Amino acid sequence: MNSDISILSLVTNASLLVQLVMGLLLLVSLGSWSTIFRKWFAIRSARHATGRFEGDFWRDRDLGQLYQQVRESRKDPGALARIFESGMSEFLKTRQQKPADVGAMLDAARRAMRAAYQREMDELERSLAFLASAGSVSPYVGLFGTVWGIMNSFRGLANVQQATLAAVAPGIAEALVATAIGLFAAIPAVVAYNRFSYDIDRLSTRFDSFIEEFSNILQRQAK
């Protein structure tokens, strides 16, 4: 490519507004990639911790022993373990206060698990809104920069005697760079948002199933 129309020269020669649009889109892109990597590690860790706890839970272990292990664990036990701990803790407290009221024990445990479940889902879904916004807005921001750059190019033609492709091409090219940067910021954000939403939905289903199964176990133990 000729150095006169290199990407760097197109960016540096663009109008101030187009450069501001490009800078904003680059910041959004950096923020998106940072969020993508952090969220990927968080979901991966949550998935592994959930599988590990499910294995411990269904290994015919004593629930009291498992409860103590989760409470005394120095490592992060994971979202599902915290849901279990909340339900078991509330169940034991209510059993001491109302030992004959099975319904009260089960309701208290279920409410505690639902509250813990909501906290865990809020944490897992944190920053997804930013990815959704970056994926939906970035192309339009880039298009705005492109339209503005093309307008400046055609306004510049008013000052020349003869309009040629060589006169208008650099201005249009530098304007189109804004659209390219907008797409560069949007596409990874959209792909990551869809993937993370799918993974979080699967974890949510596993949490829901565990709450129902654990409630059934508590109901049998309370009788």
Task: Provide a quick synopsis of the model.
This protein is mainly α. Helix content is 84%, strand content 0%.
List the helices and strands and how they pair.
Blueprint (H helix, E strand, L loop, with lengths): L6 H6 L3 H42 L5 H10 L6 H19 L4 H24 L2 H29 L8 H58 L1
Helix pairs in contact: 2-6, 2-7, 4-5, 4-7, 5-7, 6-7
Structure explained in plain terms:
With 223 residues, this protein is mainly α. It has one domain. Helix content is 84%, strand content 0%. The chain contains seven helices and no strands. The chain has helices at 7-12, 16-57, 63-72, 79-97, 102-125, 128-156, 165-222. The relative contact order is 0.17. The model has no long low-confidence stretch (mean pLDDT 85).
Question: Gap between N and C termini, in Å?
Answer: 79 Å
The share of residues in extended strands comes to under 5%
Overall, the morphology is rod-shaped
Q: How many structurally independent domains?
A: 1
> Rg, please?
28 Å
What is the β-strand count? Answer: 0
Structural class: mainly alpha
Helix content: over 70%
Average pLDDT score: 85
Report the major sheet. Answer: none
Order of helices and strands: HHHHHHH
Sequence stretches where pLDDT stays below 50 over 5 or more residues = none
Number of helices: 7
